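Friendly challenge for the regulars: who can give me the structure tokens for this chain first? No prize, just bragging rights.
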Amino acid sequence: MLYLISSSSSRANLLQNARLAFKQIKFDFDENFDKNIPASLYVQRVVLEKERQFCEKMSLDFKDKTLLFADSIVCVKEQILTKARNKEEAYKMLDLQSNQSVNILSAFILKSPQKQIFSLSKTTLFFKEFEPKDVENYVENDFYKGKAGAISCESFHKKYIINRIGNLDTALGLDTLTLKAYL
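First reply, four minutes later:
Bragging rights claimed.
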């Protein structure tokens, strides 16, 4: 049995869609890190810290289990975008993304008694210009909440994607193709 150590409903949906048996363990992590490092290092640091925090508190209960830790960030022109804390931040993030290319970096650690796998994946999305009324509806109805970079590929952003390089699951929060290769 795979244990998803995450509160993310998006990651849980990805595992369900990939037909993987799992149990979700919700765990609050401290994700406040210095963003003045390259995005690829930042997302790796976050996922490693999630593993450390969980194992420090829960290691005995899960020592013989297969655990999955994951995180995703959005990067626009070398600027790291994590989850928007409020509407003002969401508007700023969406403004940066409109008519731009956006990199989504997703890292995971798959940890079991037999192995530990670390994976880093990247998907680049190319967006056309966002319509202001759509942006306002998205932000004012709080649809951005809980989304890295305020990105929702399955709703708001979907109609604005003009090209994609990489795996859509990575953009949604977890590279399930790579994960399945190691299960």
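The two ends are 10 Å apart (CA to CA). Residues 39-62 form the longest helix (24 residues). Your move, everyone else.
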